[in-house]
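pasting for ref
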Amino acid sequence: MFFLLILSSAIGLAFGNILESIGLRAANSIKSLAGNKFWLGGLFLSIIATLLYYEAMAKYNISLVQPFMALNPALTAILGWKILGEKITRKIALAIVFIFFGLVIDGTLAGEASGGLNSGKTLWIYAGAVLCLLLVFCLIFRSAEITDSLCAGAGFGLSAVFYKSIALEGLLLFPIDLRIFIDLRVLSFAVLYIAAFICSQVGLRRGRALFVIPLSATVGLIVPVLGGIMVFGEPFPLQKIIVVVLVAIGSVLFIRSKK
């Protein structure tokens, strides 16, 4: 079930990225997107893939699930090459190899023990620290392409951490616990996800897909993995360290390949 959920999610996100990119390039205005079949199709795939991703995250450790999201830029690069005619350089090919080997190792950890919420205070401290670091990096890197990517990655990553904390308490199970409507974590999750989605769409519109997606994916990998360790006390053996390093190197190679 783990591999079915996570692979379906990664493939759906990759196809969604390509279709959204085609639609955004063809659109002349926000209004024109409403009738753009490519953008709507990509959005639909992305929504389904995201639901599968959250289902996997609710069932398994976030630090185990998140590295598999690196398949998104890898598959996007391959699809971009086949569909959009974008070039695959040696660095991109090497990046795909790093990511592939990292995920092979990650797959061997699928049966690891589950983590748990350490404390609500830890969650908010971690979220505040991530947002402060995001602000600092955005002030240092003034490029719109970089800031869009950083905001999208941090937003998606933090929203995943908040979602995991909600799922651990069973607030998303049927019948729905009424506390979910007054829980500040739910509002934070929604705000972070919507903000990240907007940043990703803006980034794809005015930036390069093979830059925006890998950079946001890198940040979106690191934030939840660290959150899984610091907030939920998830296991972090040597194999997982190797996984994070390999996947991060692969993502960085994607970014550097377009400089």
